[in-house]
Amino acid sequence: MSEQIKESSVTEVGDVGLPEDLARADLYGLIARLFQEAPDQELLDQIVSSIPEGQEAQSEGAPLARVWQNLVEMAKTNPAKAWQDEFDQNFISVGRPIIILNGSFYMAGYLNERPLVEIRRALDAFGLESAEEISETEDHISALCEVMRYLIAGDDVEISNLTNQRVFFNDHIRPWHDDLFDAIDSIPEMRLYHSVASLAREFLAIEGQGFDMI
Hints:
The protein is mainly alpha-helical. The chain has 10 helices and 2 strands, in the order βααααααβαααα. A two-stranded antiparallel ribbon has the order 1-2. The two termini are 27 Å apart.
């Protein structure tokens, strides 16, 4: 399962579903990983290798392809330490960080408010719970993306289905993700994570459009 959310049952995320759904699950997983902690060099190299040398121009068509290309360029030209420094400076603090990654803050104005309670109720219904070693609450953007990953690619079709994806996304991610990405974009110094925010914004916009068609 994920590093932030674990299952109460024995079912796991696997290779279940159509290729496009598995690609969606993978992208949710990557966004979760990038907002949970700074990418190490191995992950940066994997991102760079996603577009073979010489094929960059082929990725300039659709908006999602363009923002992915931008992330690839940032990964190619900036070492892991630069990503770590930017992550620590903006997302980590003994007090209030510059950028808060929790939905309750954007939906209710404060941390640990009613939106977090509602998310915990949804997770309980899915048989999911936060991993013990994770300090972030369940309304953290990484945790929410991991839940979506499970709802797409989990083995239990009673839980991992399109209806639950749509409801969870519309209730717990859609109302605030643009506010988070606007906050990141408002800080010029966050050069690297602008590329992550752009990717996440474009992908989640596509997700919302898809759910609206159901």
